[in-house]
Design a protein that fits this description.
With 425 residues, this protein is of the alpha/beta class. It has eleven helices and 16 strands. Strands 1-2-4-3-5-16-6-15 form an eight-stranded mixed sheet, sandwiched between helices. A four-stranded antiparallel sheet has the order 10-12-8-13, with helices on one face. Strands 7-14 form a two-stranded antiparallel ribbon. Helix 2 packs antiparallel against helix 11 and helix 9 crosses helix 11. It starts with a helix and ends with a helix.
Length: 425
């Protein structure tokens, strides 16, 4: 990347404070100059996807890409994630501190694309775009390091594994890698079925809390021809599924987004045996702590009492997942300002999301500790019917890589804007 940075280093370092126009020009020029390296890094990561909390190959690629920069690195014991810190030369005592985050792990699924850099490891694919998130964060680090001499604050670059259900952000917090806490935090997530280059966000709940449940219905098995001699758990399990859906619509305000979905049913071994047990598994999605607690209690009560009405018993185990992703209104408005500043297509630069997305995100752990926001970047192929493109987690997901410089500029711009102006009233 060093060769591609040389062209703009001198000019960017000469600027002591950015006007909106100067910020736009410098960030876009810098990000586009880095595009070949951003794309090359993204493809290298994509070809060798890693799962869970330990992504050593990916982390090694990141360290190599940033080896020449004046960064201080911190690592922990729970994950292979690391935090790189850039201290601005003009960052005095009490100077603002910003965190930018990129996740690194892939999904346990086979890739079904025709890409020349497709996954080389069976059963693994970067189908959620974390390869792009990491590459864009590396690009942002280079853009910001190029102006270290004039930077009046500190930036932490959080390279995080284990986002796909493994609580990587929580582990990195517990390992003390985000200490001291930043004054603001920002992250970016690509959307392959959203219009090319558009950035989007929403104040308040952006993404849901996601919890897992297992309901075990226990009866008494026997011969399928003599159910009167048994306590059949199967019809009770079916009734619980219906009762849970009625519970959601009757116990929660219709304007409240609460989703409880049974995704797995397991019972029996053959056609003529009533089993002792039936097991239901699924997910709970909520947008507030109050509804989360209420949903947990009602699910357990509904399963238990419905089972009792069928002459069997039911127990409910709930495994907490990520909390609600809550975005600070000031951080969202800051992101909108930056997005409109780096745009080249006017009003299409920014989109206010009308409603939360019921997926989950472990950047929520960071946003519980400090104000900030996550934004979405549309990466559908420019000119395509984006609404028909494959979504994240699809084995056929494609990314228009020419959108990545805009993501680099967005991340770097959020850091600069906060350091220069904070959260404006």
């Amino acid at each position: 990347m060093r060769a591609h940075c040389a062209a703009f280093l001198a000019g960017i370092r000469a600027v002591t404070r950015y006007s909106a126009a100067m910020l736009t020009d410098h960030l876009l020029n810098a990000a586009h100059a880095l595009q070949p390296d951003i794309v090359a890094l993204r493809r290298a990561i994509h070809a060798e996807p890693e799962l869970g909390l330990h992504c050593p190959m990916t982390m090694a690629k990141v360290r190599a890409a940033l080896a020449d920069l004046p960064l201080e690195w911190r690592s922990g014991t729970s994950t292979t994630g690391e935090v790189a810190t850039l201290k601005g030369a003009k960052a005095g005592l009490g100077a603002p501190r910003v965190l930018l985050r990129g996740d690194m792990d892939a999904l346990p699924m086979d890739e079904k694309t025709d890409l020349e850099f497709a996954s080389t490891i069976p059963g693994r694919m970067h189908a959620c775009g974390h390869d792009t998130h990491t590459a864009m964060l590396v690009g942002a680090a280079r853009v910001l390091a190029a102006q270290q001499d004039t930077l009046a604050g500190t930036v932490d670059f959080m390279f995080q594994p284990g986002e796909e259900g493994h609580h990587g952000a929580r582990f990195m917090l517990e390992d003390g890698l985000i200490d001291p806490l930043p004054d603001a935090a920002f992250a970016l997530h690509i959307m392959p079925n959203a219009k090319f280059g558009v950035l989007a966000g929403k104040a308040g709940p952006l993404m849901a809390a996601a919890d897992q449940f297992t309901i075990t219905v226990t009866g008494k098995g026997g011969h399928a021809s003599m159910p009167h001699d048994c306590a059949d758990p199967v019809p009770a399990a079916a009734a619980i599924i219906s009762a849970v859906q009625a519970m959601v619509t009757r116990k929660f305000n219709a304007a409240s987004a609460v989703v409880i979905t049974v995704t797995k049913i397991e019972a029996g071994t053959t056609f003529n045996v009533i089993p002792d047990d039936a097991i239901l598994q699924g997910t709970i999605r909520t947008l507030s702590h109050e509804h989360r607690d209420k949903a947990h209690a009602l699910l357990e009560q509904t399963a238990r009492e419905t089972a009792k009405a069928h002459g069997v018993e039911a127990s409910c185990e709930i495994v907490p997942g990520f909390p609600v992703t809550l975005c600070d209104d000031r951080a969202v408005r800051l992101g909108e300002k930056v997005a409109r500043g780096i745009a080249t297509d006017g009003d299409d630069a920014w989109h206010d999301l009308p409603a939360p997305i019921m997926g989950a995100e472990d950047f929520s752990y960071i946003l519980e500790k400090t104000p900030g926001a996550m934004f979405f970047l549309g990466v559908a192929p420019d000119g395509d019917n984006w609404s028909q493109c494959c979504a994240i987690h699809s084995p056929r997901m494609h990314v228009d890589e020419t959108a990545l410089p805009r993501g680099v500029a967005m991340l770097a711009g959020c850091a600069i804007e906060f350091i220069e102006n904070g959260f404006e009233a």
